[in-house]
UniProtKB/TrEMBL annotation:
Keywords: Glycoprotein, Signal. GO terms for biological process: cellulose microfibril organization; plant-type cell wall cellulose biosynthetic process. Residues 1-33 form the signal peptide. It holds the Pfam family COBRA. GO terms for cellular component: plasma membrane. This is COBRA-like protein. InterPro entries: COBRA_pln.
Length: 214
């Protein structure tokens, strides 16, 4: 009889251990448990100058979520910066600024934003296709290892890679999270491979900003 009891005890001991391990592994797969591990992640903002215009340039800004376990949830990311001089945004595709600011010095063509420190938000997925660019318009939601892009036409800016000025004081906010962003750094111009992989084009100038969860 004794041996029967001891084997039952052993059995329930194993069961308990098994249940315990199971509960541990389910804790570790939840997002919170990975916070400590995710400190190596970052959000990288890449700013590509695509073409010069008579008074500035057309740029494409891409936000990469290089965090393994942090999704940016609705109502989504808000990206801000401070212009170096008197730059304005003539137009945007795939996003918008939250405020137009004071554009009273303009007659005729009115800029999209004249704010010294604009805040940009994503558009909704219901945005008409002719007002989208690729990787835009997800209502600010950004999954791990995903990217979000928008295009902007900047005026009152430099028109060569020697006279153009990088914006300063980047800020990135997400629901429940603030990120701390470093200064922009000039990097090798991005190369773009066209759809049929027949041709490679290059940005005229590229800078990146690294933001970390704080
Ligand atoms: C940001 O994350 C990317 C992707 O993991 C990595 O290649 C890059 O080195 C990171 N940059 C910094 C400054 O942490
Ligand atoms: C500016 O343009 C010149 C000529 O195309 C190029 O050699 C130089 O590397 C560019 N500088 C930057 C910062 O991209």
């Amino acid at each position: 009889m004794e041996s029967v009891f001891s084997s039952i005890n052993k059995f329930s001991g194993f069961t308990l251990l098994f249940v315990f391990l199971l509960s541990c592994s389910s804790t570790f797969t939840s997002t919170e448990a990975y916070d400590a591990v995710d400190t190596g992640g970052n959000i990288t903002i890449k700013w590509d100058v695509m073409s010069w215009t008579p008074d500035g340039y057309v740029g494409v800004v891409t936000i990469y979520n290089f965090q393994k376990h942090h999704q940016i949830k609705a109502p989504g990311w808000r990206l801000g910066w401070t212009w170096a001089k008197k730059e304005i945004i003539w137009s945007m595709v795939g996003s918008q600024t939250t405020e137009q600011g004071d554009c009273s010095r303009f007659k005729g063509n009115i800029p999209h934003s004249c704010n010294k420190d604009p805040t940009v938000v994503d558009l909704s997925p219901k945005t008409p296709f002719n007002q989208q660019i690729s990787n835009c318009c997800r209502g600010g939601v950004l999954k791990p290892w995903d990217a979000s892009s928008f295009q902007l036409s900047v005026g009152a800016a430099g028109t060569t890679n020697k006279t153009v000025r990088m914006p300063k004081h980047f800020t990135l906010n997400a629901p429940g999270n603030a990120y701390t962003c470093g200064p922009p750094q000039i990097v090798q111009p991005t190369k773009f491979i066209t759809q049929h992989k027949k041709r490679v084009t290059r940005a005229l100038m590229t800078w990146i900003v690294i933001c970390k969860y704080s």
